[in-house]
From TrEMBL:
UniProt-listed PANTHER family: HTH-TYPE TRANSCRIPTIONAL REGULATOR ADHR, REDOX-CYCLING DRUG-SENSING TRANSCRIPTIONAL ACTIVATOR SOXR
Coiled coil location: 81-115
Start and end residues of each HTH merR-type domain: 1-69
Entry-linked Pfam families: MerR_1
SMART domains xrefs: HTH_MERR
Organism listed in the record: Clostridium frigoriphilum
Protein name, UniProt field: MerR family transcriptional regulator
Secretion signal, residue range per the UniProt entry: none
Keywords of the record: Coiled coil
Length: 143
């Protein structure tokens, strides 16, 4: 399939597909006799793999390294496995941090009326009172 079709299937712009290939984020795409990229199922698979990792926050450098190793074949299997384990560990930590934040947000939503809103209003009142004191002090200095 031509690049336009690959872009439509993957949801990635034509320019980005070219860029990702150029920087090695996805393996080189086979070209037809006319030199036009000819994306196949495996190309779409690699694009999906790279984009999933990118979306998860894996650096482009790490994605490139993994794909470069994968292209080398069986001899890099253990190194690739280690990269996957390290990536999983980072993602587990990130997900735990996000879950803790989500728990706080859910708590605040659930208790907003009885706890958060009064505290917020109190903070606003204190801020307004301090602002008035500051304005009075500035007025006294200017006169």
């Amino acid at each position: 399939m031509v690049i336009k079709e690959a872009a439509k299937i993957t949801g990635i712009s034509i320019d980005n597909l070219r860029y990702y290939e150029r920087i090695g984020l996805i393996p080189k795409v086979r070209r037809n006799e006319s030199g036009i990229r000819d994306y196949d199922e495996m190309s779409i698979h690699w694009i999906g793999f790279a984009m999933r990792f990118k979306k998860a926050g894996v650096s482009l450098k790490d994605i490139r390294e993994y794909i470069h190793l994968a292209i080398q074949g069986e001899s890099t299997k253990e190194v690739r496995r280690e990269i996957l384990i390290e990536t999983k560990t980072r993602l587990d930590k990130k997900m735990q941090d996000m879950q803790e934040t989500l728990d706080v947000i859910n708590y605040k939503i659930d208790t907003y009326e009885e706890k958060c809103e009064p505290v917020t209003n109190e903070l606003i009142d204190v801020w307004k009172a301090n602002r008035k004191k500051t304005e009075k002090a500035l007025d006294m200095k200017l006169t």
